[in-house]
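cache lookup: miss for this entity combination. No prior model stored, computing from scratch. Input as submitted by user K.M.:
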Amino acid sequence: MPTLWFILVGFMLTMYVLLDGFDLGAGAIAPFAARTNRDHRILLQAIGPVWDGNEVWLIAAGGTLFFTFPKLYATSFSGFYLPLMIVLWLLMLRGLSIELRGHFPSPLWGQFWDGLFFLGSALLAIFLGAAVGNVVRGVSLDQQGRFFAPLWTDFDPRSPTPGILDWYTILIGLLALSTLVLHGANFIAVKTTADLQQRTQRIARLALVSTVLLAAISTVATFWLRPVLLDRFASQPLGAIFPLLAIAGLATVGYARWADRDLLALLASGGYILGIMSSTAFVLYPVVLPAVNPANSLTITNTAAPTYGLTVGLIWWGIGMVLASIYLLVIYRLFRGKVQLDESGY
Amino acid sequence: MNDAATVSRLQFAFTVGYHYLFPQFTMGLAFLIFLLKTLYLRTKNEQYNQATRFATKIFAISFIVGVVTGIPLEFQFGTNWAEFSSFAGNIIAQLLAMEGAFAFFLESAFLGLLLFGERRFGQRVHWLASLLVFVGTWSSGFFIVAANSWLQHPVGFQPQPGGGIALTDYGAILFNPWVGPQYLHTMTGATITGAVTMAGLGAYYLLQGQHRDYGQIFLRLGVTVGLIATIIALFPSGDWEGQQVARLQPAKLAGMEGVFTTESGSGIVLIGQPDVELQRLDNPIVVPNLLSFLTFHRWNAQVIGLDQIPDDQQPDNIAFLYYAYHIMVGLGTIMLGVMLLAALLLWARRLYTSRWALWLLLLIVPFPFIANTAGWFTSELGRQPWLIYGLLRTTDGDSTVVSSGNVLFTLLGFMGIYALLWCLFLLLMLREITHGPEAATAAGTHGVTTDPPDDFLDLDDTALAKP
């Protein structure tokens, strides 16, 4: 049962990265893709009807993690207190920047929110990547399974008391930024036309190059830092399917960008994200938060909720996800196609 | 202020108290928007449709502030209340996660449709969107009230061998006897906020002599719904809540009513200042025997006073609890009176010209916000010193690894962001209200009234000259 929930929470987080990923990416490319007020409005219109729903995947994943692995939720959220609060502030300011921009017809008002939209989106991408980096690298859990990570210590991932930011987690943060820029640019290219679309396609090509480079460096760095993760592939060679999916996804993005097939590129960058998320989950399993001293690591067994709650949870969770998927399909279908900017809206 | 639990409490009280100013309004308004849209479909009176669009604009601004201030709450259980989260997370988080699965997805999907879908997808889809947003916000309220009810009256669990407690009965936490009265009372309170605000807006337009037709629509709907809701808040929902508290949380009842000594035929205190040191009320005005009657339906029933409750089980801020409760009841009574008066004038067809009554309706707009907040303070302060009533003390529930300095840092950060948010909210609200209902167009609700000229960032002068 805990294994099943490990997969389901992983699924929700992956949905979050896939969906909110493209609107975070849209924010991160906004100042480079959008030249005019009209461009900015088109960008916002493209993500406007869906960004809040995308973000709900994060909130819902948080809630699901809370009731399925309460000890992991409690330990990691209190241990990552400061960065988590900063992420919350960024989420808040960024949400405002999307919704409030169109409410006041002043150039300064628009520029202020455009700036905040860019900063919030880019920093969130980096922080979310660094969070994954922290979970892969491990933290200094004590015997009671508690820790408190400062924002930084000596920037050395092999330190006995690592901070949130070190060269490894920053590297993963940059990889996340590059990945989401690629994903977001692919999405915006699908939703736009003319010169805005062309600029976005150019950004996507640059992001593809940087993503390939950063992904290669990050992979080497990860296995150099934690060679033990490679063992998972030795014991279960079938797991190689996950990194292969990521590689295939990136290769397909390459083909699609070369052939200017925007929708295929978007689907392929989604496949690549699915590949890296599932690879990460695969190498970590059954550990959910590694400790510097491996004996103190949190695993799915020592953090899972009792079986009864996990079983009833499965029933309503299933219903809830079916409903959520229906809404998702309905909304994306209703707002499909290129953005048409009428007088109203963002 | 130096222990982390206290600062965490302050932070939670501040963030949740601030947050709740918005959902109480949007839950009430979602109901009214649904009514307006339904009225339009039945009467085909275009003014109802226009009023719907306008109310949706007001809703959208309030909703986004509610959404962003809601984000920290789900995470604060883990960041600031880690011991509580590992103790009872497998139970309480069932309800929180259900809110995400059943309410948030629904709201977020169909709000976009409500905002942008009218022209493209037609009136029936738009009506359906207003219904689903209403259902979404109200089911969100249900799960939060259910989660809070479990803290007030924990059920359906068993102690676990390794410490902490485990869920044993899922139905029990969903149909906790505490949920019914509290949900009814909370949602009634939210409806009052929506209705009183709408009536106040209508009164404002009539007093100003602007947008008269819409002012009258808002008054009719606001006063009608407001009267019904203020009555339900008192009876039966308030009455049920009071009896439930008397039965299950005598310490809370004693604190909120200011009953220091146990007596038969206890009177109800209308006004007076609790002197906790001397265990008495100063300058009290009391209606004899009424408290006994209201809580136990017998004039001579015994009401347990604070003297019978051990010190370590008394709420830790009796005076605040007492005032919170009295403020809620006092303002609720005033609102009921004003609504009754306004409804009579409406019935006699004299409301739209009675300036003094319109002034009253305008001036009470802040009251429901204060009363709802005070009500929640009553509920939560009265639960102290327990985080989970009778099971886990608040001081045992916070995060041991987070220092008070770190919590203060984030509390101050929240204060800063929320101060900015308040300025923005007021600015945008005043703007929408000044532009009025006629400015809302069918297509959407954002920036319609003064659609910025296309390339204002290119700073051409005409753009700056526009209002």
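stored under new cache key. Chain A has a mean pLDDT of 91.
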